[in-house]
Amino acid sequence: MRIAMYYNNRDVRLEEMPTPQIEPGELLVKVIASGICGSDVMEWYRIKTAPRVLGHEITGEIVEVGEGVERYKVGDRVFVSHHVPCNTCHYCLNGYHTACEMLHTTNYDPGGFAEYLRVPRINVDRGVFLLPDEVSFEDGVFIEPLACVVRGQRVARLQPGQTILVLGSGIAGLLHIALARAFGAGRIVATDINEYRLNAAQHFGADVAIHAEEDVPARLRQANEDRLADLVIVCTGALPAFNQALQSVDRGGTVLCFAPTEPGISLPVPVNDFWRNSITLMPSYGNSPLDAVVAIELIRARRVPVHEMITHRLSLAEIGLGFQLVADAKESIKVIVEMDRGVDS
User: Fold this and answer.
1) What pLDDT is stored for residue 235 in this prediction?
2) Cα 51 to Cα 22: distance, rounded to the nearest angstrom
3) Phi-psi label, residue 117: left if phi above 0, alpha if psi -120 to 50, beta otherwise
């Protein structure tokens, strides 16, 4: 089968490897569509395990069912989660599924940028979801990133009527904007350094878009009746954005760290301000199976307009271009790879 082997952001090669053989309890899935995630181009992180087949936002069709699998059949249209929790450890039992050691170590074989993938038994048990008829293979690639956003807003306890500030209007920021709008947020303000993405932020629900190099707290007050934000969501790893977040959160508010920085970065936190003003600083990583279920329903019900976020559809042979588009982060929103797509399609 054909696969895309990642060496670095500028070197993603079309190669061949044997189609995986499945064991009892496993599935073989023909990948139909696979999204390129912003984390796929975090070179400092990905290059540690290169060369490897990346890709974790996939939809496809089951083509082989292992002995003992009863919930799924050949021909089922599915989304497959690459990371799944054990559901029995201390962290899972306390609701912190994304802190589970098993979630951090599970994956499918070899990765989403391949024509076929083997779904291990535990992923079959906890990470395979049937696509509703209303959800296309294309739209289904948003299930994983939207599920992460669902979890982020859930743990941050977003409430209707709140003022939301989203720092960074890439795909994660745009999904946060669209979901916050669907959940009844009040005023939504977005930032970015790119005009293309600022325009996209307003298209998908932001009331105000601010260039990130401006005085964001001051502009926020101007747009929000002299108040700061109830919830600040940091969707970029740029350190200035984290500093802006700490300056832009209102008393009693929350800063949600949704994106990692490069390694070795420390954030200076004004502890006394947080203590006196009852400010909450919290992270959100990944998603749980429940969040995936919610994301599927949001897409099925058209509550989040994910289809409009697709800007590029590429063949597997063009995946190098896709990585460049996502890494450049200038004039793309969501780049997806369609396995059956021809180069000239």
Assistant:
1) 98
2) 23
3) beta
Q: What is the DSSP letter of 29?
A: E
Mean pLDDT of 297-314: 98
Architecture of domain 2-145+287-338: Alpha-Beta Complex (3.90)
Mean pLDDT of 112-117: 98
Q: Which residues contact 32 (CB under 8 A, 6 or more apart)?
A: 59, 60, 61, 137, 338, 339, 340
Give span(s): CATH 3.40.50.720, the chain: 157-283
Residue 140 structure tokens? 């289904």
Confidence at residue 165, expressed as pLDDT on a 0 to 100 scale: 99
Cβ atoms within 10 Å of 18's Cβ, excluding its own:
7
**Residue 344 in this model has a pLDDT that exceeds 70:** no
Q: What is residue 25's three-state secondary structure?
A: coil
- Measure the CA–CA gap between 209 and 216, rounded to whole angstroms: 10
- Amino acid at position 204, single letter: F
The arithmetic mean of pLDDT across residues 28-33, rounded, is: 99
Rounded to an integer, what is the distance from CA 297 to the centroid of its chain?
16
Average pLDDT over residues 281-296: 97
- CATH number belonging to the domain at 157-283, selected among 3.40.50.720, 3.30.450.150, 3.40.50.170, 3.40.50.10780: 3.40.50.720
